[in-house]
């Protein structure tokens, strides 16, 4: 395969396109809402109307507004329909030439769509995730060609450093710095790992990218492997994501077949293979050292660092581990330059971030916005605010390791530093909106129950501490707590933070600490004596559980 080979695939693909395309979301959110039946019905309706020559029905990835699925978009008309049923399809096909369909139209002029800045998601809802030709027609794998043929590995690392990209898996570690460390570590074998274990409650960004645009991840990994000197890649996919796994498997086979993975890619000396590994449902296996143990066939428990994977990772060899979204950012950065990417976002948080917006908000789904967008813009404009006449209470970011931003701080800029200053974290991108019916102590209990369940049990502070904190929180929820329970709660949180071995235990107290910081009166209401004397006894709990 060479550049002209890629161009002729793209040309053939573009040439074979019909004048009209009906794109039907085939990602998991819409599949769960029966989008497969809608696709089948659309194909039958096109055939029945004798329009096979002029209308193509295409399965595509996530179109964003997952809560209103199944979504269908008609091009080039630029019309989108929501909550489509098989009964709607005839009128959708009939309206392709300009009539009005009886199907419910989505408002594409809504800020939910207009304020998005798609870089990671630029192909999502556009390419057919099961056909490599569709990705190639959008310029796919061309960046890999230029990188392999025109750039040295060091130049690639420099470009990524210049972009200011920080790892999207949660900690926000500078990606260029990590790549430079793996690149300079001498070894006879190195590898690249894509962390696709996404386990945070409320998060589904990585799943959507894998289901919608799998080749972009492969291309990003291949560029990374060239930059650091690796020839083997692994994608560690969460076991609960069968559709993502299948799409990645198909994508790897297609890329292998075209010589875009394998030996002497683009006739260069570079060889790179990718294998898939499935996680078995343990949240802790998303932690990088536990993930590596799991790939090696051992029990998935974390180990102390250093040594970091960049120096001694899989089988003791230098290993580059990045998140799905981090890799998905790589092809556009190399295509348009690190400077282009660094111009988006804030001083220290560059580029865009994908969030799964869920909870008590009218528009839930997948959004990609520049870093520095305010939380108010996301919740009130893009999300269209809190429904049912209720008021916003807080926004939970960062899942079980994160915290709550209270409504009074809604104008915060969404970037790593600003969220941390409020006691929350960016995390991997889960964003749960909570209305004023939410019981914050019960919310903290929910996250602590999750951490206690998911604790691998290797170290005592986390194994015992998460269970103890959970039991204490139960006492607050039952309004049986005492003042000494509150003191103990804070002490245990401190202990977990400082003495746990890995991020699961270290960050488990965050939801408790941030709700204590902003909603302390709700804890006090859970202390029978104080709650009664101050008139703070709560109404029966209405829990706003994350979606
Ligand atoms: C308990 C725990 C779970 C984690 N789960 C994930 C995960 O599902 N996906 C992910 O990319 N990173 C996860 N991480 C972070 C990884 O350890 C690692 O930092 C990340 O994969 C590095 O990629 P990045 O630099 O691109 O962010 C988790 C960390 C902890 C402590
Ligand atoms: S902090 Fe928790 S999850 Fe991490 S190693 Fe210790 S017991 Fe396991
Ligand atoms: S899954 Fe269909 S729009 Fe997101």
List the SSEs and their pairings:
Elements: H1 3-15, E1 20-25, H2 28-31, H3 35-48, E2 55-60, E3 72-75, E4 79-81, H4 89-94, H5 111-114, H6 132-137, H7 142-150, H8 153-163, H9 175-184, E5 191-196, H10 205-212, H11 214-228, E6 232-237, H12 242-257, E7 273-278, H13 288-295, E8 319-323, H14 324-336, H15 338-342, E9 352-359, E10 365-370, H16 375-382, E11 392-397, E12 403-406, H17 416-421, E13 430-435, H18 440-454, H19 460-477, H20 483-499, H21 503-507, H22 510-518, H23 520-524, H24 528-533
Description:
It is a single chain. This protein has about 550 residues and is an alpha/beta fold. About 40% of the residues lie in helices and about 15% in strands. β3 and β4 form a beta hairpin. α10 (about 205-210) runs parallel beside α12, α11 (about 215-230) crosses α14 and α19 (about 460-475) packs antiparallel against α20. The radius of gyration is 24 Å and the shape is globular. The chain starts with a helix and ends in a 14-residue tail after the last helix. The structure holds flavin mononucleotide, iron/sulfur cluster (SF4) and FE2/S2 (inorganic) cluster.
């Amino acid at each position: 395969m060479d550049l002209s080979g890629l161009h002729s695939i793209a040309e053939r693909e573009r040439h074979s396109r019909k004048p009209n395309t009906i794109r039907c979301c085939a990602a998991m959110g819409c599949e769960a809402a029966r989008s497969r039946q809608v696709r089948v019905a659309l194909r039958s309706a096109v055939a029945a109307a004798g329009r096979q020559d002029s209308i193509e029905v295409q399965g595509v990835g996530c179109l964003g507004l997952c809560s209103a699925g199944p979504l269908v978009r008609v091009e080039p008309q630029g019309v989108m329909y929501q909550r489509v049923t098989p009964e709607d399809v005839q009128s959708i096909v009939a309206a392709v030439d300009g009539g009005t369909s009886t199907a419910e139209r989505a408002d594409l002029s809504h800020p939910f769509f207009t304020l998005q800045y798609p870089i990671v998601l630029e192909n999502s809802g556009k390419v057919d995730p099961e056909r490599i030709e569709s990705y190639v027609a959008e310029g796919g794998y061309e960046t890999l060609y230029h990188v392999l043929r025109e750039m040295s590995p060091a130049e690639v690392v420099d470009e990524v450093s210049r972009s200011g990209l920080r790892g999207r898996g949660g900690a926000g570690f500078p990606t260029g710095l990590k790549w430079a460390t793996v690149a300079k570590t001498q070894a006879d074998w190195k590898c690249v790992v894509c962390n696709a274990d996404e386990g945070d409650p409320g998060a589904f960004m990585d799943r959507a990218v894998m289901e919608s645009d799998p080749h972009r991840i492969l291309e990003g990994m291949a560029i990374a492997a060239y930059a650091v000197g690796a020839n083997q890649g692994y994608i560690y996919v969460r076991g609960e994501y069968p559709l993502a796994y299948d799409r990645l498997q198909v994508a790897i086979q297609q890329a292998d077949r075209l010589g875009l993975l394998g030996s002497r890619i683009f006739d260069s000396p570079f060889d790179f293979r990718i294998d898939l590994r499935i996680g078995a449902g343990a949240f802790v296996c998303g932690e990088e050292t536990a993930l590596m143990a799991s790939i090696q066939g051992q029990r998935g428990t974390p180990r102390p660092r250093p040594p970091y994977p960049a120096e001694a990772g899989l089988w003791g060899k230098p290993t580059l581990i990045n998140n799905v979204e981090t890799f998905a950012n790589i092809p556009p950065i190399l295509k348009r330059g690190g400077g282009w990417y660094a111009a988006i976002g804030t001083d220290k948080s560059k580029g865009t971030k994908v969030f799964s917006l869920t909870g008590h908000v009218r528009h839930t789904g997948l959004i990609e916005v520049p870093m520095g967008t305010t939380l108010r813009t996301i919740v009130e404009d893009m999300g269209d605010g809190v429904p049912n006449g209720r008021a916003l209470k807080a926004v939970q970011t960062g899942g079980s390791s994160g915290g709550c931003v209270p409504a009074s701080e809604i104008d915060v800029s969404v970037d790593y530093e600003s969220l941390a200053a409020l006691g929350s974290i960016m995390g991997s991108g889960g964003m749960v909106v909570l209305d004023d019916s939410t019981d914050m102590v019960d919310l903290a209990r929910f996250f602590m129950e999750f951490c206690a369940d998911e604790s691998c049990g290797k170290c005592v502070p986390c194994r015992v501490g998460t269970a103890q904190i959970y039991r204490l929180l139960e006492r607050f929820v039952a309004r049986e707590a005492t003042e000494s329970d509150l003191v103990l709660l804070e002490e245990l949180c401190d202990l977990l933070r400082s003495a746990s071995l890995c991020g699961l235990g270290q960050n488990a107290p965050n939801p408790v600490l941030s709700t204590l910081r902003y909603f302390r009166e709700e804890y006090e209401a859970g202390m029978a004596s104080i709650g009664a004397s101050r008139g703070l006894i709560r109404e029966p709990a209405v829990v706003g559980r994350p979606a």
